[in-house]
Amino acid sequence: MDILETSAYDRRQRRNTTCVLFLYLLPFFTSCAIYFYLWIPDSAPSLLAAGIKAAPILCLVLLVLSYNGGRSLVGVAGGLLLSAGGDFCLIWPELFIHGMGCFALAHLVYSISFLSSRFSATSSSVSFFILYLILWLFGIGMYAYLVPFLRLDPEADVLVPAIGGYILLIVIMATLAARTRRPLILLGSLVFMASDLTIALTKFNVFDVEYKKHIIMTTYYLAQLMIALGDVKAALEEEADDIHKWKRS
């Protein structure tokens, strides 16, 4: 193929890929709509409520698996699956620690995934070092601010170190997301932090937020969507690079 033919072929492939990706995302948007329409109250935990809440994330698991195969179970798909487990647990207030543990493991899996060759990045610029510094200062400051409120909880002996470990893992995840230089991955991690921050401020009675559940769930689903799409986009670019190398050989 000459340059013009290759360019036209690439444009057709991008259009086809966009259409297929949209179709793959329909179950995610449908399950989100069902969740927000039913809006099952927190006072009525059940297996059905847990399933409805976790369904959008499970749809994203299937999306990532369809593009990346089983290997993504130790990558972004695995993180999404653990997140779905966290959603399931958090339906019951008494399983809060278990749910937080699932999400902590999800952040760990995301972090490992962002270190893979697919997300390899060039050396960091000064602006990114500043972003890293801001993320870490924010994490440390947020934990220091929360500790007095955590100590008022009956389970303070568990929560104080557990929340500290969780904040450490999510900050590491966001830092490595920034390192990938992929806007969707970075934005997803930052929106995830915003969602978790809202949970922390409202659950531990720092202050109340009107429509807190709307904010938490909207930002949470959006964050997971961006991380999943960022991973799919990286896989498609990797595949396109391999095809171009093959054509040149």
Automatic annotation (TrEMBL):
> In its keyword annotation, does this UniProt entry include Membrane?
yes
Q: Which InterPro entries match?
A: TMEM86B-like
Pfam families in alphabetical order: YhhN
| Membrane topology term | Multi-pass membrane protein
* TM regions (residue ranges): 21-40, 46-65, 72-91, 97-116, 128-146, 158-177, 184-202
| Protein name from the UniProt record | lysoplasmalogenase
Q: What is its EC number?
A: 3.3.2.2
Q: Main EC class of this protein?
A: hydrolase
Coiled-coil annotation reads none
Q: Name one GO cellular component term.
A: membrane
Where is it located?
Membrane
Membrane: present as a keyword of the record? yes
Q: Which UniProt keywords apply?
A: Membrane, Transmembrane, Transmembrane helix
Q: What's this protein's family per the entry?
A: Belongs to the TMEM86 family.
Main subcellular location:
membrane
